[in-house]
Design goal:
This protein has 480 residues and is of the alpha/beta class. The protein has a single domain, classed as Glycosidases (TIM Barrel), CATH 3.20.20.80. The protein is 38% helix and 15% strand. The protein contains 15 helices and 15 strands. It has an eight-stranded parallel beta barrel with strand order 2-3-4-5-6-8-11-12, surrounded by five helices. Helix 3 runs parallel beside helix 5 and helix 8 packs antiparallel against helix 9. It is globular, with a radius of gyration of 21 Å. The two termini are 31 Å apart. The N terminus is likely disordered. Belongs to the glycosyl hydrolase 1 family. This is Beta-glucosidase. It catalyses: Hydrolysis of terminal, non-reducing beta-D-glucosyl residues with release of beta-D-glucose. Its EC number is 3.2.1.21.
Length: 480
């Protein structure tokens, strides 16, 4: 992705200096439709798998659901004004498929398209660049009833939907992503069932993975066929850095396995390298998932993208299991012989380990892997239990520390020559955090879900100052 014609780089800085980012660096924040919009039955919107999942007892903490969430469907102008106050140059949002096509295909709901028209126009009026994501996990329930991502037909329906939305918004939106984190859709949704649609079928999860990637490739083909030359298309993947305590062969092998099932099995085929042979061999015992792969599929999946969206939150610690045939519990279908270890250090409220070193290592590795393909950090952030003081202020020093440490990691990667073009913080707003309901707060802006009052947190104000200076301090956790 190019934000301007400039391709400038920054050099290393001493601890006494501010760490400056390239002059065209893209600063922004991200959200997702189901997590913030609310109005789940308004204006003809059809149900999604997350509406169904949230309505199923025991699936979402406290029985929370996506309505009213942050009421962004009605308060989008207020939220865009917040973006302006923070100095954001870009806003990554997702389009709710079932707002546009209530049954996933067929009749178009014009009121759904009109909402995104209004949102995009409001962003542009405030000089905030729209970055559209077409799928952030909210598959129309009507398509799930026909097999969802286990059904090859869903990939074609996704391409049709992508073409439709792009045709409507493409006169104003240049930056596009197809899928957000297909690892979560495929594995959390179909292998260990903690996300919608809540299945626990390892083979089905791998089949869903293939159809998600196929849908991505088909969608890029469809959009590029009608796009102006300045449009840039991407896929957003969530990555981890797998770490073992020892450097023996057994430890290196479990790192390889986890890296394969989290990172390479999604990235390699998009880069035209096919599914990694070692990972295919590792998971062969779960069933013949490759029966769904047809001639030409891998060429479609490898349809060139213009930039790679990178989401990162925490590392994954692993160790060899005593029994190489031990089936590892957790999110990875077909993983054997590995133990997933507890995270370490001061954790976020989500229980995630905080490690900017792992982020820097990941970006450096990706720089070697993707070559000259530009990278945008499309999500990075932390959840903590925020406290509102007697004056209504939200001081969140741990989120500030996470933000600054991870921006320093981005700077380290850029200084080493990795082509990182932007950073979009997760998240603009506190929101519905999937199976955790409203219990986890990632926002730069606090949302009072009873009153819908928004309050910029110290972390949001910190990011605003960083954007204004286009730099972070080399040390410490205060930005003057």
């Amino acid at each position: 992705m190019t934000t301007t014609d400039s391709d400038s780089r920054v050099g290393p800085a001493s601890a006494a200096q501010a760490l400056e980012f390239p002059p065209d660096f893209l600063w922004g924040a991200a959200t997702a439709a189901f997590q913030i919009e609310g109005s789940t039955t308004a204006d003809g919107r059809g149900p999604s798998i997350w509406d169904t999942f949230a309505a199923t007892p025991g699936k979402v903490l406290a029985g929370d659901n996506g309505d009213p969430a942050c009421d962004h469907y009605n308060r989008y102008a207020e939220d865009v004004e917040l973006m302006t106050s923070l100095g954001l140059a870009a806003y990554r949002f997702s389009v709710a498929w079932s707002r546009i096509l209530p049954r996933g295909a067929g009749a178009v709901e014009p009121r759904g398209l009109a909402f995104y028209d209004r949102l995009v126009d409001e962003l542009l009026a405030k000089d905030v660049r729209p970055v559209a994501t077409l799928y952030h996990w909210d598959l129309p329930q009507a398509l799930e009833d026909e097999g969802g991502w286990r059904n090859r037909d869903t990939a074609y329906r996704f391409a049709e939907y992508a073409e439709l939305v792009h045709a409507r918004l493409g006169d104003r939106v240049q930056l596009w992503s197809t899928l957000n984190e297909p690892w979560c859709s495929a594995f959390l949704g179909h292998h260990n069932g903690i996300h919608a649609p809540g299945l626990t079928d390892s083979q089905a999860s791998l089949e869903a993975m293939h159809h998600l990637l196929l849908g991505h490739g088909l969608a890029v083909e469809a959009m590029r066929a009608q796009a102006p030359e300045d449009h840039r298309f991407s896929l957003v993947l969530n990555f981890t850095t797998a770490w073992a305590d020892n450097d023996d062969s057994a430890s290196r092998d479990v790192v390889r396995k986890v890296d394969g099932l989290h990172n390479r099995i999604f990235l390699d085929p998009v880069l035209g390298r096919g599914y990694p042979a070692d990972v295919v061999e590792d998971v062969a015992w779960v069933g013949d998932w490759q029966r769904v792969v047809r001639d030409g599929d891998m060429d479609v999946i490898a349809t060139p993208i213009d930039w790679l969206g990178v989401n990162y939150y925490s590392p994954t610690r692993v160790a060899p299991a005593a029994d190489p045939a031990h089936v590892t519990e957790g999110p990875f279908p077909g993983l054997r012989g590995a133990e997933l270890l507890d995270p370490r250090g001061e954790l976020t409220s989500f229980g995630w380990e905080q490690s900017a070193d792992a982020f820097a290592e990941l970006l450096l590795t990706l720089g070697r892997t993707v070559g000259d393909l530009p990278i945008v950090v499309t999500e990075n952030g932390s959840a903590f239990h925020d406290e509102v003081d007697e004056l209504g202020r939200v001081d969140d020093p741990r989120r500030v520390a996470y933000l600054l440490d991870h921006l320093r990691a981005v700077h380290t990667a850029i200084s080493a020559g990795v082509d990182v073009r932007g950073y979009l913080a997760w998240s603009l707003l506190d929101n519905f955090e999937w199976a955790e309901g409203y219990s986890q707060r990632f926002g730069l802006v606090r949302v009072d879900y009873d009153t819908q009052v928004r309050t910029v947190k110290r972390s949001g104000a910190t990011l605003a100052r960083i954007i204004g200076r286009n730099s972070v301090p080399a040390t410490g956790y205060e930005v003057a």
